[in-house]
Amino acid sequence: MSLRVPVTDQDHIQGNPNAKCTLVEYGDYECPHCGHAHPIVKRIQKHFGKKLRFVFRNFPLAQMHPHAESAAETAEFAGAHGKFWEMHDGLFENQQELGGSLYLKLAGQLKLSPEKWRTAMDSREFLPRVKDDFTGGVRSGVNGTPTFFINGKRHDASFEYEDLLAAIDSTIKS
Amino acid sequence: MSTILSAGTPAPDFSLHVTPDQKLSLKELRGRPVVLAFYPADWSPVCGDQMALYNEILSEFHKSGAELLGISVDGSWCHEAFAKDRRLHFPLLADFEPKGAVAKAYGAYRQEDGYCERALFVIDKNGVIAWSYISPVAVNPGADGILDALESLPK
Protein backbone atom coordinates (compact mmCIF):
# COMPACT_ATOMS: atom_id res chain seq x y z
CA MET A 1 0.00 0.00 0.00
CA SER A 2 1.60 3.25 -1.01
CA LEU A 3 1.04 6.96 -0.87
CA ARG A 4 -0.64 8.13 -4.06
CA VAL A 5 -0.61 11.83 -3.32
CA PRO A 6 3.03 12.95 -3.39
CA VAL A 7 4.33 15.35 -0.78
CA THR A 8 4.50 18.86 -2.23
CA ASP A 9 5.06 22.34 -0.86
CA GLN A 10 1.29 22.57 -0.39
CA ASP A 11 1.72 20.15 2.49
CA HIS A 12 2.39 21.01 6.11
CA ILE A 13 6.00 19.96 6.45
CA GLN A 14 8.23 20.03 9.51
CA GLY A 15 11.97 19.40 9.46
CA ASN A 16 14.66 19.25 6.82
CA PRO A 17 13.13 19.52 3.33
CA ASN A 18 15.96 17.36 1.94
CA ALA A 19 15.73 14.68 4.60
CA LYS A 20 16.41 11.11 3.59
CA CYS A 21 13.17 9.96 5.17
CA THR A 22 9.66 11.39 5.08
CA LEU A 23 7.07 10.40 7.65
CA VAL A 24 3.50 11.21 6.64
CA GLU A 25 0.70 10.96 9.18
CA TYR A 26 -2.99 10.95 8.33
CA GLY A 27 -4.67 11.98 11.55
CA ASP A 28 -7.81 13.16 13.30
CA TYR A 29 -7.57 15.71 16.14
CA GLU A 30 -10.33 13.98 18.08
CA CYS A 31 -9.02 10.44 17.69
CA PRO A 32 -7.52 9.19 20.98
CA HIS A 33 -4.99 7.02 19.14
CA CYS A 34 -3.74 10.09 17.27
CA GLY A 35 -3.56 11.88 20.60
CA HIS A 36 -1.41 9.02 21.84
CA ALA A 37 0.78 9.18 18.73
CA HIS A 38 1.36 12.94 19.01
CA PRO A 39 4.13 12.91 21.66
CA ILE A 40 5.62 9.80 20.06
CA VAL A 41 6.04 11.66 16.76
CA LYS A 42 7.71 14.52 18.66
CA ARG A 43 10.23 12.11 20.20
CA ILE A 44 10.83 10.50 16.81
CA GLN A 45 11.51 13.91 15.25
CA LYS A 46 13.92 14.74 18.03
CA HIS A 47 15.71 11.43 17.64
CA PHE A 48 16.24 11.65 13.87
CA GLY A 49 16.82 15.40 13.63
CA LYS A 50 17.84 16.42 10.11
CA LYS A 51 17.36 12.91 8.75
CA LEU A 52 13.57 13.16 8.95
CA ARG A 53 10.84 15.42 7.67
CA PHE A 54 7.30 15.09 8.98
CA VAL A 55 4.08 15.77 7.10
CA PHE A 56 0.62 15.93 8.64
CA ARG A 57 -2.55 15.47 6.60
CA ASN A 58 -6.15 15.58 7.78
CA PHE A 59 -8.27 12.49 8.08
CA PRO A 60 -11.22 13.53 10.25
CA LEU A 61 -13.74 10.76 10.95
CA ALA A 62 -16.45 13.37 11.13
CA GLN A 63 -19.41 11.05 11.66
CA MET A 64 -17.73 9.51 14.67
CA HIS A 65 -15.96 12.56 16.05
CA PRO A 66 -18.16 15.65 16.06
CA HIS A 67 -15.24 18.08 16.56
CA ALA A 68 -12.76 16.47 14.19
CA GLU A 69 -13.65 18.54 11.16
CA SER A 70 -13.84 21.89 12.95
CA ALA A 71 -10.47 21.18 14.59
CA ALA A 72 -8.94 20.35 11.20
CA GLU A 73 -10.39 23.52 9.69
CA THR A 74 -9.03 25.54 12.59
CA ALA A 75 -5.55 24.07 12.05
CA GLU A 76 -5.77 24.92 8.35
CA PHE A 77 -6.93 28.43 9.19
CA ALA A 78 -3.89 28.85 11.43
CA GLY A 79 -1.77 27.35 8.63
CA ALA A 80 -2.98 30.03 6.22
CA HIS A 81 -1.48 32.54 8.70
CA GLY A 82 1.78 30.67 9.18
CA LYS A 83 0.84 29.04 12.50
CA PHE A 84 -0.15 25.54 11.47
CA TRP A 85 2.17 23.58 13.74
CA GLU A 86 1.50 25.77 16.77
CA MET A 87 -2.24 25.18 16.36
CA HIS A 88 -1.70 21.49 15.57
CA ASP A 89 0.18 21.02 18.84
CA GLY A 90 -2.37 23.05 20.79
CA LEU A 91 -5.24 20.96 19.47
CA PHE A 92 -3.62 17.64 20.27
CA GLU A 93 -2.44 18.79 23.67
CA ASN A 94 -5.99 19.85 24.56
CA GLN A 95 -7.81 17.06 22.80
CA GLN A 96 -10.39 16.68 25.58
CA GLU A 97 -11.56 20.28 25.12
CA LEU A 98 -12.02 20.53 21.35
CA GLY A 99 -14.65 23.09 20.42
CA GLY A 100 -15.20 26.76 19.75
CA SER A 101 -13.91 28.11 23.04
CA LEU A 102 -10.64 26.17 22.80
CA TYR A 103 -10.13 27.26 19.17
CA LEU A 104 -10.65 30.90 20.15
CA LYS A 105 -8.30 30.58 23.11
CA LEU A 106 -5.57 29.01 20.96
CA ALA A 107 -6.14 31.56 18.18
CA GLY A 108 -5.74 34.29 20.77
CA GLN A 109 -2.48 32.83 22.07
CA LEU A 110 -1.18 32.70 18.49
CA LYS A 111 -2.26 36.28 17.82
CA LEU A 112 -4.71 35.19 15.13
CA SER A 113 -7.80 37.28 14.55
CA PRO A 114 -10.90 35.77 16.16
CA GLU A 115 -13.09 37.52 13.58
CA LYS A 116 -11.16 35.99 10.69
CA TRP A 117 -11.36 32.61 12.38
CA ARG A 118 -15.13 32.92 12.74
CA THR A 119 -15.55 34.03 9.12
CA ALA A 120 -13.44 31.09 7.92
CA MET A 121 -15.48 28.66 9.99
CA ASP A 122 -18.84 30.10 8.93
CA SER A 123 -17.93 30.00 5.25
CA ARG A 124 -16.24 26.60 5.62
CA GLU A 125 -13.30 28.14 3.78
CA PHE A 126 -10.89 25.36 4.68
CA LEU A 127 -13.26 22.41 4.41
CA PRO A 128 -12.36 21.63 0.76
CA ARG A 129 -8.70 21.35 1.74
CA VAL A 130 -9.57 19.03 4.62
CA LYS A 131 -11.79 16.91 2.37
CA ASP A 132 -9.06 16.72 -0.29
CA ASP A 133 -6.65 15.38 2.30
CA PHE A 134 -9.25 12.84 3.35
CA THR A 135 -10.04 11.64 -0.17
CA GLY A 136 -6.36 11.39 -1.07
CA GLY A 137 -5.83 9.37 2.09
CA VAL A 138 -8.59 6.94 1.21
CA ARG A 139 -7.07 6.45 -2.25
CA SER A 140 -3.72 5.70 -0.65
CA GLY A 141 -5.21 3.03 1.58
CA VAL A 142 -5.63 4.94 4.83
CA ASN A 143 -7.94 2.64 6.77
CA GLY A 144 -8.16 4.35 10.14
CA THR A 145 -6.34 6.89 12.24
CA PRO A 146 -3.54 7.41 12.65
CA THR A 147 -2.08 5.93 9.47
CA PHE A 148 1.62 6.51 8.84
CA PHE A 149 3.57 6.29 5.59
CA ILE A 150 7.35 6.01 5.69
CA ASN A 151 8.89 7.14 2.41
CA GLY A 152 5.55 6.50 0.77
CA LYS A 153 5.01 2.99 2.13
CA ARG A 154 2.18 2.38 4.59
CA HIS A 155 3.43 1.45 8.03
CA ASP A 156 1.10 -1.33 9.17
CA ALA A 157 2.92 -2.26 12.35
CA SER A 158 2.51 -0.59 15.74
CA PHE A 159 3.26 3.12 16.08
CA GLU A 160 4.64 2.86 19.58
CA TYR A 161 7.96 4.70 19.88
CA GLU A 162 10.32 1.73 19.52
CA ASP A 163 8.42 0.26 16.58
CA LEU A 164 8.17 3.50 14.63
CA LEU A 165 11.79 4.27 15.40
CA ALA A 166 12.95 0.86 14.14
CA ALA A 167 10.90 1.17 10.94
CA ILE A 168 12.29 4.62 10.13
CA ASP A 169 15.79 3.54 11.07
CA SER A 170 15.70 0.62 8.64
CA THR A 171 14.35 2.87 5.87
CA ILE A 172 17.17 5.36 6.39
CA LYS A 173 19.79 2.60 6.38
CA SER A 174 18.42 0.81 3.32
CA MET B 1 -8.39 -17.77 4.50
CA SER B 2 -11.46 -18.78 2.55
CA THR B 3 -11.64 -18.87 -1.24
CA ILE B 4 -14.15 -16.24 -2.21
CA LEU B 5 -16.09 -15.92 -5.45
CA SER B 6 -14.03 -14.21 -8.11
CA ALA B 7 -14.64 -11.68 -10.86
CA GLY B 8 -16.88 -12.89 -13.66
CA THR B 9 -19.09 -15.01 -11.39
CA PRO B 10 -22.78 -14.10 -11.18
CA ALA B 11 -23.40 -12.76 -7.66
CA PRO B 12 -25.64 -15.16 -5.70
CA ASP B 13 -28.94 -13.47 -4.92
CA PHE B 14 -30.15 -13.11 -1.35
CA SER B 15 -32.95 -11.61 0.64
CA LEU B 16 -31.98 -10.53 4.14
CA HIS B 17 -33.34 -8.38 6.93
CA VAL B 18 -32.11 -4.82 6.69
CA THR B 19 -34.26 -3.73 9.65
CA PRO B 20 -36.21 -5.93 12.07
CA ASP B 21 -39.28 -5.68 9.81
CA GLN B 22 -37.86 -5.07 6.34
CA LYS B 23 -35.97 -7.24 3.90
CA LEU B 24 -33.73 -6.29 1.00
CA SER B 25 -32.77 -8.52 -1.90
CA LEU B 26 -29.80 -8.10 -4.18
CA LYS B 27 -31.90 -8.25 -7.34
CA GLU B 28 -33.84 -5.16 -6.22
CA LEU B 29 -30.64 -3.23 -6.82
CA ARG B 30 -30.11 -4.49 -10.38
CA GLY B 31 -29.25 -1.63 -12.72
CA ARG B 32 -26.60 -0.05 -10.51
CA PRO B 33 -23.36 -1.24 -8.97
CA VAL B 34 -23.42 -2.72 -5.48
CA VAL B 35 -20.57 -2.82 -2.98
CA LEU B 36 -21.05 -5.78 -0.67
CA ALA B 37 -18.81 -5.62 2.39
CA PHE B 38 -18.71 -8.69 4.62
CA TYR B 39 -17.23 -8.02 8.06
CA PRO B 40 -16.85 -10.14 11.19
CA ALA B 41 -18.99 -8.34 13.75
CA ASP B 42 -20.66 -5.15 14.92
CA TRP B 43 -19.07 -3.28 17.82
CA SER B 44 -15.47 -3.48 16.74
CA PRO B 45 -13.54 -1.60 19.39
CA VAL B 46 -11.21 0.47 17.22
CA CYS B 47 -11.56 4.02 15.94
CA GLY B 48 -12.00 4.19 12.24
CA ASP B 49 -13.03 0.60 11.88
CA GLN B 50 -14.11 -0.64 8.48
CA MET B 51 -17.78 0.35 8.62
CA ALA B 52 -17.00 3.74 10.15
CA LEU B 53 -14.53 4.43 7.36
CA TYR B 54 -17.06 3.52 4.68
CA ASN B 55 -19.59 5.73 6.39
CA GLU B 56 -17.23 8.68 5.98
CA ILE B 57 -16.68 8.08 2.28
CA LEU B 58 -20.20 7.15 1.30
CA SER B 59 -20.38 10.16 -1.00
CA GLU B 60 -17.43 8.76 -2.99
CA PHE B 61 -19.31 5.49 -3.51
CA HIS B 62 -22.46 7.37 -4.46
CA LYS B 63 -20.54 9.33 -7.12
CA SER B 64 -20.31 6.04 -9.03
CA GLY B 65 -24.02 5.46 -8.48
CA ALA B 66 -23.13 2.51 -6.27
CA GLU B 67 -25.06 1.21 -3.31
CA LEU B 68 -23.07 0.08 -0.26
CA LEU B 69 -24.29 -2.84 1.85
CA GLY B 70 -22.57 -4.04 5.01
CA ILE B 71 -23.21 -7.63 5.98
CA SER B 72 -22.41 -9.73 9.03
CA VAL B 73 -24.00 -12.55 11.02
CA ASP B 74 -25.30 -10.13 13.65
CA GLY B 75 -29.08 -9.94 13.97
CA SER B 76 -31.12 -6.99 12.77
CA TRP B 77 -31.72 -5.63 16.30
CA CYS B 78 -28.00 -5.62 16.90
CA HIS B 79 -27.36 -3.93 13.54
CA GLU B 80 -29.97 -1.32 14.38
CA ALA B 81 -28.30 -0.45 17.68
CA PHE B 82 -24.84 -0.44 16.09
CA ALA B 83 -25.90 1.72 13.14
CA LYS B 84 -27.56 4.19 15.48
CA ASP B 85 -24.57 4.37 17.80
CA ARG B 86 -22.09 4.89 14.95
CA ARG B 87 -24.49 7.02 12.92
CA LEU B 88 -24.08 4.80 9.87
CA HIS B 89 -25.89 6.03 6.79
CA PHE B 90 -26.02 2.80 4.81
CA PRO B 91 -27.85 -0.52 5.29
CA LEU B 92 -26.46 -3.41 7.33
CA LEU B 93 -27.76 -6.83 6.36
CA ALA B 94 -28.29 -9.59 8.89
CA ASP B 95 -26.92 -12.91 7.61
CA PHE B 96 -28.46 -14.37 10.71
CA GLU B 97 -30.85 -17.21 9.85
CA PRO B 98 -29.73 -19.64 8.61
CA LYS B 99 -26.56 -18.25 10.07
CA GLY B 100 -23.96 -17.19 7.53
CA ALA B 101 -25.80 -18.72 4.57
CA VAL B 102 -25.07 -15.77 2.27
CA ALA B 103 -21.46 -15.53 3.42
CA LYS B 104 -21.10 -19.24 2.62
CA ALA B 105 -22.56 -18.70 -0.87
CA TYR B 106 -19.86 -16.06 -1.49
CA GLY B 107 -17.13 -18.19 0.07
CA ALA B 108 -16.70 -15.63 2.82
CA TYR B 109 -17.62 -17.58 5.96
CA ARG B 110 -15.19 -18.60 8.68
CA GLN B 111 -16.60 -21.91 9.82
CA GLU B 112 -14.13 -22.23 12.69
CA ASP B 113 -15.07 -18.82 14.12
CA GLY B 114 -18.72 -18.65 13.14
CA TYR B 115 -18.52 -15.25 11.50
CA CYS B 116 -17.81 -13.62 8.12
CA GLU B 117 -14.44 -12.90 6.62
CA ARG B 118 -13.49 -9.34 5.77
CA ALA B 119 -14.40 -9.78 2.14
CA LEU B 120 -15.35 -7.15 -0.42
CA PHE B 121 -17.33 -7.58 -3.61
CA VAL B 122 -18.10 -5.01 -6.27
CA ILE B 123 -21.09 -6.26 -8.26
CA ASP B 124 -21.85 -4.61 -11.59
CA LYS B 125 -25.22 -3.34 -12.72
CA ASN B 126 -26.00 -6.70 -14.32
CA GLY B 127 -25.44 -8.62 -11.10
CA VAL B 128 -22.02 -10.03 -12.00
CA ILE B 129 -19.06 -9.82 -9.64
CA ALA B 130 -16.60 -7.34 -11.13
CA TRP B 131 -14.01 -7.41 -8.34
CA SER B 132 -13.51 -9.22 -5.07
CA TYR B 133 -10.96 -9.06 -2.30
CA ILE B 134 -10.37 -10.85 0.98
CA SER B 135 -8.37 -9.27 3.76
CA PRO B 136 -6.82 -10.94 6.80
CA VAL B 137 -9.52 -10.74 9.43
CA ALA B 138 -7.48 -8.41 11.64
CA VAL B 139 -6.73 -5.97 8.83
CA ASN B 140 -9.19 -3.29 7.78
CA PRO B 141 -9.01 -3.44 3.96
CA GLY B 142 -9.78 0.26 3.54
CA ALA B 143 -11.62 1.55 0.51
CA ASP B 144 -9.01 2.18 -2.17
CA GLY B 145 -9.63 -1.18 -3.88
CA ILE B 146 -13.38 -0.59 -3.96
CA LEU B 147 -12.98 2.89 -5.45
CA ASP B 148 -10.56 1.61 -8.10
CA ALA B 149 -12.98 -1.20 -8.99
CA LEU B 150 -15.95 1.16 -9.23
CA GLU B 151 -13.96 3.45 -11.52
CA SER B 152 -13.05 0.57 -13.84
CA LEU B 153 -16.67 -0.50 -14.33
CA PRO B 154 -17.88 0.07 -17.90
CA LYS B 155 -20.06 3.17 -17.93
Task: Describe the structure in brief.
By secondary structure, chain A is of the alpha+beta class. Chain A is built from 7 helices and 5 strands. In chain A, strands 1-3-2-4-5 form a 5-stranded mixed beta sheet.
Report on this model:
The complex is a heterodimer of chains A (174) and B (155). Chain A has 174 residues and is of the alpha+beta class. Chain A has a single domain, classed as Glutaredoxin (3-Layer(aba) Sandwich). Chain A has helices at residues 32-48, 68-80, 84-93, 100-109, 114-122, 127-139, 161-173; strands spanning 12-15, 21-27, 52-58, 147-150, 153-155. Chain A has a five-stranded mixed β-sheet with strand order 1-3-2-4-5. In chain A, strand 4 (147-150) and strand 5 form a beta hairpin. In chain A, helix 2 packs antiparallel against helix 3. Chain B has one domain (15-152): Glutaredoxin. A five-stranded mixed β-sheet of chain B has the order 5-4-3-8-9. A two-stranded antiparallel ribbon of chain B has the order 1-2. The longest helix of chain B is centred in the middle third of the chain and has 11 residues, at 76-86. Chain B is globular, with a radius of gyration of 14 Å.
